[in-house]
């Protein structure tokens, strides 16, 4: 548990999830109606992904029931629990009221986005840059895109204009061509996977003709 009286305990990060004054008033008002509110905290957890957004679960939890690796901190009298596996995805977020005053509930304004490709497994790449990109596409990226009816194809690998590294040119095909999600999938999913895995690559360029396909969006 991140809040601990032990002098050797690691200091918890401050306000992984911030809370606006309006949201704080709402949450504290609900908390006051709970049994034994002094022993409760607001637990905020990422539970899944819906499109390009995270899904969340917000609930009151007894502080004594918090897991040992949960991060716990206080915001103006409200104890907040963030599970360890949620910290990275929630970092820098804000709990707020909806912009529409007629909309009930709370909203989380999160600058982070989930990887559209999901979790990438370990893969061993060998050979030239072209061969490594092809292996990554075949073993990791295209099997994930196939579930959405799409695929990515390597067009070329060219030296970077500044001479530092190489630039990969890809096209998106199948269900990804002309799809408004494909640009996000390329930039936040495929590009990240390639840059993180193949160190000599410094950029990834989308060479797809998005004016073609069943639902073009670059028109």
Summarize, please:
The chain has 4 helices and 10 strands. The chain has helices at 21-32, 87-90, 129-146, 182-197, and strands spanning 17-19, 40-50, 53-62, 71-75, 78-82, 93-96, 107-109, 150-159, 166-174, 201-206. The model is unreliable at 1-10 and 214-219 (pLDDT under 50).
What does this structure look like?
There is one protein chain. The chain has helices at about 20-30, 85-90, 130-145, 180-195; strands at about 15-20, 40-50, 55-60, 70-75, 80, 95, 105-110, 150-160, 165-175, 200-205. The protein is of the alpha/beta class and about 220 residues long. It folds into 2 domains: about 15-110, Sandwich (Hypothetical Protein Aq_1857, Chain: A); about 130-205, Fe-S cluster assembly (FSCA) (GMP Synthetase, Chain A, domain 3, 2-Layer Sandwich). The chain is elongated, with a radius of gyration of 22 Å.
List the helices and strands and how they pair.
Layout: E1 17-19, H1 21-32, E2 40-50, E3 53-62, E4 71-75, E5 78-82, H2 87-90, E6 93-96, E7 107-109, H3 129-146, E8 150-159, E9 166-174, H4 182-197, E10 201-206
Parallel strand pairs: 1-6, 2-5, 9-10
Antiparallel strand pairs: 2-3, 4-5, 6-7, 8-9
Reading off the top of the CATH hierarchy, the class of the largest domain is best stated as Mainly Beta
Which stretches are poorly predicted, pLDDT < 50 over at least 5 residues? 1-10, 214-219
Instruction: Give the helix/strand class.
Output: alpha/beta
**Cα separation of the termini:** 52 Å
How many domains is the backbone divided into?
2
| SSE succession | EHEEEEHEEHEEHE
| Rg from alpha-carbon coordinates | 22 Å
Count every helix, treating DSSP H or I runs of 4 or more residues as helices. Answer: 4
How many β strands by DSSP? 10
Strand content: 25-35%
Give the rounded overall mean pLDDT: 82
Lateral strand order in the biggest sheet: 3-2-5-4
Here the CATH topology of the largest domain equals: Hypothetical Protein Aq_1857, Chain: A
Shape type = elongated
CATH architecture of the largest domain: Sandwich
Considering the protein shown, what is the CATH homologous superfamily of the largest domain? HesB-like domain
* Portion of residues within helices: 10-25%
Biggest β-sheet strands, sense, barrel: 4 strands, mixed
């Amino acid at each position: 548990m991140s809040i601990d009286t032990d002098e050797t305990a690691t200091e918890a990060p401050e306000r992984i999830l911030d809370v606006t004054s309006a949201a704080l008033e709402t949450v504290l008002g609900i908390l006051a109606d709970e049994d034994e509110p002094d022993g409760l905290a607001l637990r905020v957890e990422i539970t899944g992904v819906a499109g390009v957004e995270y899904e969340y679960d917000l609930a009151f939890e007894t502080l004594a029931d918090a897991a040992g690796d949960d991060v716990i901190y206080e915001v103006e009298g409200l104890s907040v629990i963030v599970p360890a596996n949620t910290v990275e995805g929630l970092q820098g977020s804000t709990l707020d009221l909806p912009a529409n005053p007629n909309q009930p509930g709370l909203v989380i304004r999160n600058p982070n986005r989930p990887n559209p490709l999901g979790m990438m497994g370990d893969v061993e790449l060998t050979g030239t840059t072209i061969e490594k990109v092809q292996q990554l596409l075949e073993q990791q990226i295209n099997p994930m895109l196939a579930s959405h009816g799409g695929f990515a194809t390597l067009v070329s690998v060219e030296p970077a204009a500044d001479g530092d590294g190489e630039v990969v040119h890809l096209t998106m095909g199948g269900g990804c061509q002309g799809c408004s999600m494909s640009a996000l999938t390329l930039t936040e999913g495929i590009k990240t996977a390639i840059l993180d895995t193949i160190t000599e690559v410094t950029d990834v360029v989308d060479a797809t003709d998005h004016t073609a396909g069943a639902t073009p969006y670059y028109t």
